Amino acid sequence: MTGRAVVTGVGHYLPERVVPNAEFEATLETSDDWIRSRSGIERRHFAADGETTSDLAINAARAALADAGIDANEVDAIIVATSTADLTFPSAATMVQSGLGMTSGFAFDVQAVCAGFVYALSNANALIVSGQANRVLVIGAETFSRIMDWSDRSTCVLFGDGAGALVLESQDTAEQDRGILSVDLNSDGRYKDLLYVDGGVSTQTTGHLRMQGNQVFRHAVEKLAKTANTALKKAGLSAQDVDWIVPHQANIRIIQGTAKKMGLSMDNVVVTVQDHGNTSAASIPLALSVGKARGQIKQGDLIVTEAIGGGLAWGAVVIRW
Ligand code: UT7
C-alpha cells in the first residue's frame, strides 16, 4: 500500500570543534559585533582534520534510525543532500550506506546547495508516494569549512559544518493527516554567478565559495515567503495554519523578514543560526532535530520548511509532523 511520507525519526550530528566569532578577529578585519548584528551568527562547528561529510552524515543517520527504532537494513533508499561530498564519486550516500552496514536498497546524492534538503525531501516524497520505496533516509550533510577562502571576511565567517537526518516512512494517514503535504521547487540559472564555487572537477581545482551576499539577500527576502505560501496553498492551507517555520539558517534578518512577510511571529520560527552558522543543505534537518529536542516541534504540528541558495535554487515543503 502506498501512502504519505511520514517523518518517523530525526537526528543530527555536529563536529566537536566550536568556533566562536571572536576567533576570526585574530586574522581578519572583522568583529563579533559585526557578525552577530549582520547575520545573527555567534558560533559554528568545524569538522576535524580528516573528518568528512559522510562521517557527519553517518552519525546523523544513526541518531535518526535510533529515533525511528529501526535498523539500517529496514531502509529502502538513502538520499544525501550535499555540495561537499568526500570524493567526486561515488556518492556520499553510498558511503553512508556502507558505513551503516546496509547491503540492500539504493543510495544517491542530490546537489542543490542550500536548497538541497528541500530538493531531497521532494525526491524522497516522490519515491514513497509512487510506491518505489517504503522507508527513505534523507540526510543533509556538509563540510563548507573545506571550501572557504579564509582571507574573504564577507563569506568565511558565515558558514559551518554539520549534518541532520530524517527517516520517512510510507503510512496511510488519511485520518491523522500526517506526512509531507506539498512541495514547491524553483530555480533560475540566470543568477548562477551570485553564489558559486570557483572550482570543480573539470577545472581541476577544488575552488572557494564566492558570494555577492547583498544580492542573494535581496532574492531571499523576495522569494522565500512566496515559495512557502505557494507550498501552503498547494496543500489547501495558509500561513495562519502554520505551527513552525523551519527555515534555512543563513541569516537571522532573512529569517525575520520571511516570517514578517508571512504574517507570523518569531515565536513560530525554529532558530539555530546563532549556534550553527550557515550549514547549507544540513541546516533544515539540523533545525528540525534541535527543534524537536527543545520540545518546540511536536507530533501533529504543521511545519513549513523553506530554503534558497546557489543556482539560484529555492523551495519549500509543508509537513504535518
Ligand atoms: O545560504 C545561501 C544563501 N546565502 C544567504 O542567504 C546569505 C545572504 N546574505 C547575507 O546574509 C548578507 O548579505 C551578509 C551577512 C553576507 C552581509 O550583510 P550585508 O548587510 O548585506 O552587508 P554588505 O555585504 O552590504 O556589506 C556591508 C559592509 C561592507 O563594507 P562597505 O563596502 O560598506 O565599506 C563589507 O565590506 O560590511 C563589510 N563586511 C564586513 N565587515 C566586517 C563584509 N563582511 C564583513 C565582516 N566583518 N565579516
Keywords:
binds oxa(dethia)-CoA, globular, alpha/beta, 4-stranded mixed sheet, 2 domains, 321 residues
Structural commentary:
The chain is of the alpha/beta class and 321 residues long. The protein folds into two domains: 4-171, Thiolase/Chalcone synthase (Peroxisomal Thiolase, Chain A, domain 1), CATH 3.40.47; 179-320, Peroxisomal Thiolase, Chain A, domain 1 (3-Layer(aba) Sandwich). Helix content is 30%, strand content 26%. It contains nine helices and 13 strands. The strands form four sheets. A five-stranded mixed sheet has the order 1-7-6-4-5, sandwiched between helices. A hairpin with a 3-residue loop joins strand 12 and strand 13. Helix 2 crosses helix 3 (92-99) and helix 6 (213-234) runs parallel beside helix 7. The longest helix has 22 residues, at 213-234. The chain is globular, with a radius of gyration of 18 Å.
